[in-house]
Amino acid sequence: MYFTDRGLEELETRRGEEEVSLAWLAERMREFVDANPEFEVPVERFATWLARLGDDDE
Question: 18-57 in b/e burial notation, b at 16+ Cβ within 10 A?
Answer without folding.
Answer: eeeeeeeeeeebeeebeeeeeeeeeeeeebeeeeeeeeee
